[in-house]
Design brief:
By secondary structure, this protein is α+β, with helices and mostly antiparallel strands. It folds into three domains: about 1-130, no CATH class; about 130-230, PAS domain (Beta-Lactamase, 2-Layer Sandwich); about 245-414, Reverse transcriptase/Diguanylate cyclase domain (Alpha-Beta Plaits, 2-Layer Sandwich), CATH 3.30.70. The protein is built from 15 helices and twelve strands. A hairpin with a 2-residue loop joins strand 7 (about 315-320) and strand 8. Helix 2 runs antiparallel to helix 3. It starts with a helix and ends with a helix. Keywords: Membrane, Transmembrane, Transmembrane helix. This is Diguanylate cyclase.
């Protein structure tokens, strides 16, 4: 037992405390010698006072177990010597009682402090594990995960956990803005020790990432905080969707249609291909509203939108631009026949009746078409010419389509 305590003591001492520990042991030896050889009582008391003071310090050097073990060992020796020598036992017992009382009080205080430290450590660990953000702590050298919380383990969903894994394998190569390990270290070397990476997709979850280095006793570590922003991102996407879509038909609205048309024009001019803009107006839609009410009119618009989405090509776009008017953008046209083919497919969706309030309603449409670059190379000119062509289709008896021609003038449209 004694040797075990001594071994632990030797393991735990710090170099700067070595001289104090040696002095403490020598003082105890002199004290024991005084008792054996019946030296003056006052010198023994002086040694006892040094031991008492030393006991206060040694309490902070060794662990609680070593401290209590050493004091218990020396207490047993001293009691044995006092019992078997012819000295004034009362004085020694009084002094030794003081030593024992101090040892007890110090031990009791330390036990309380250590219990509080354990409780605090458990609390901090629990708080760390229950954080809503994923937290990873890495060694700066090698950027390997040495600790993480539960949220981090759930986020990466690794069977054997993520401790011991490299950050590049886990994170840096799996986000949109790819960053390699050497680049990350270069960032961390700069005075700005915090790196923020926003709106990244990690394992199908939108996240914001903060990477920051910190020091513990001159040892450098890296903290990685990953915040799940999926709910916020979904809300943003919903707001954006509502801003660009018609709430009645769920088709893109005029704002989104114009935006895509502008991009389509730029692409067509760059690739030297054609683009078609179609204006579609429902014939006699007012009659439906006036006879069966606006609810019937809304129901009709919804059904037209569904049929339109079913006939436009994957790379094309159907949008509602207001009232009973729709727009279709046909991209990447190489021959005029392609636009005619799409127009005929759209005309065909009106051949079948629409079922409104248990009635079958037949309705037709008039379509005007303008092409890039022939009929305009900007959105304003193109839409204006497509609108003219649509009115010409109406004047021609409706239920037809017209491709813009420069012979269409304002007087004729009037």
């Amino acid at each position: 037992m004694i040797f075990k305590i001594c071994r632990e003591a030797l393991k735990e001492y710090k170099l700067e405390n070595l001289s104090f520990i040696v002095l403490y042991i020598i003082t105890i030896s002199f004290f024991i010698g005084n008792i054996i050889y019946n030296f003056p009582v006052y010198s023994s008391l002086l040694y006892l006072m040094i031991i008492i003071i030393g006991t206060m310090f040694i309490n902070n050097i060794f662990s609680l177990g070593v401290y209590i073990g050493l004091n218990s060992f020396f207490t047993c020796i001293c009691i044995f010597l006092i019992k078997n020598t012819y000295i004034d036992k009362f004085k020694y017992l009084l002094c030794f009682g003081i030593v024992i009382s101090i040892i007890f009080l110090k031990s009791y205080k330390r036990i309380k402090l250590e219990k509080e430290a354990i409780r605090r450590k458990i609390f901090e660990k629990t708080k760390f594990n229950e954080l809503l953000d994923a937290i990873l702590i890495l060694k700066y050298n090698g950027l390997v995960v040495i600790e993480c919380n539960k949220k981090a383990n759930r986020l990466f969903n690794k069977k054997n956990g993520i401790t011991g894994r490299n950050i590049e394998e886990l994170l840096l190569s799996n986000i949109s803005d790819k960053i390699d390990q050497s680049t990350l270290k270069e960032y961390l070397k700069k005075e700005n020790k915090e790196i923020n990476i926003f709106n990244q997709k990690l394992n199908n979850i939108w996240v914001d990432i903060t990477i920051k280095k910190f020091y513990v006793l001159e040892e450098c570590y890296v903290l990685v905080r990953i915040l799940d922003v999926s709910p916020h991102k979904k809300y943003e996407e919903k707001i954006e969707y509502l801003a660009y879509h018609d709430p009645l038909t769920d088709l893109p609205n005029r704002r989104y249609g114009n935006k895509q048309l502008r991009l389509g024009i730029e692409k067509a001019l760059k690739n030297e291909t054609m683009l078609g803009a179609m204006f579609i107006d429902l014939d006699n839609f007012k009659f439906v509203n006036d006879n069966w009410g606006h609810e019937a009119g809304d129901d009709l618009l919804k059904q037209v939108a569904i049929r339109l989405k079913g006939v436009v090509r994957k790379d094309d776009l159907a949008a509602r631009i207001g009232g009973d008017e729709f727009m279709v953008i046909i991209n990447d046209i190489h021959q005029i026949d392609e636009i005619s083919h799409v127009a005929n497919r759209i005309m065909n969706i009106f051949k079948k009746p629409f079922k409104i309030k248990e009635r079958e309603i037949y309705i037709t449409s008039s379509i005007g078409i303008a092409l890039v670059p022939e009929h305009g190379m900007n959105i304003e000119t193109l839409l204006k010419n497509a609108d003219k062509a649509m009115y010409v289709a109406k004047e021609s008896g409706r239920n037809t389509y017209r491709i813009f021609d420069y012979t269409y003038n304002d007087e004729f449209i009037k």
